[in-house]
Automatic annotation (TrEMBL):
The keyword Transferase applies. Its EC number is 2.4.1.198. The keyword Phosphoprotein does not apply. It comes from Riccia fluitans. This is phosphatidylinositol N-acetylglucosaminyltransferase. Keywords: Glycosyltransferase, GPI-anchor biosynthesis, Transferase.
Amino acid sequence: MTEPRRRHRVLMVSDFFYPNFGGVENHIYYLSQCLMQRGHKVVVATHAYGRRSGVRYMTNGLKVYYIPWLPFYLQTSFPTLFGTFPIIRTIILRERITLVHGHQAFSTLCHEAILHARTMGYKTVFTDHSLYGFADIGSIHMNKVLEFTLADVQQAICVSHTSKENTHLRSRLPPEKIFVIPNAVDTAMFQPDPSSRSQDEIVIVIISRLVYRKGADLLVEVIPEVCSLFPQVRFIIGGDGPKRVRLEEMREKYHLQDRVEMLGAVAHANVRSVLVRGHIFLNSSLTEAFCIAILEAACCGLLTVSTRVGGVPEACSST
């Protein structure tokens, strides 16, 4: 007789979760749903988003603790080290957690939850979703924190081989403890629809957080140049962030209101409806561990054009 599979009670912890928009948020949500389908119990802990505070329930009974901490910088919590211990301990004991899974190196809540879980004797897993440097002050500080946090985690997961090498060098975690699990896409949610595309013009779609790391400043320079060279090209930009103002200023400066459509933040459920309107998907990231948006665009039948950085070549080869 086969031994029955052990059911885990997993606590997913990150500063980045719904209603915030991004790849980390989607990854945590869909991973939680898949684990629940396999019979495991999953609970998510993140900080409060505006009036969304306390306990909420999502699809299939996914329980989310919106801890009443306000974002400090770029949606991350203020680092307190021991300030989060009482509530993390309460969640772990109340939900009878057996495994704590932290996501994203830039998440303060992730680091503190892993630290407290290790102190209490629980098993911990860490997933890194981004690439970081080694030379600037911010990266040096973050790498030291990561090295301390991952000192005795059971396993670490990266979304690409490039990300694995980056995490190994930054955290000094033994390579045999780091596993590569590429991001996946539910292709049933991203089906092509040729009837939605314009036949008279070429539409380039950009869906991304409008921040420096995602190459928003490159778009400010590239879009006017492309529009001047190719009158039949139009852009659709979905996403929000601090660089949105620069893109709107560019659109006003070059009088491109009828050729550059700014959608603002796009809910993940509506991403397909935007992608199927385009012919080309453009990714301008300056650093990228994987870029799941490329896979989603390819599933919708778009040609993809991207900067050759990080794990993007791995994502493109998988399409």
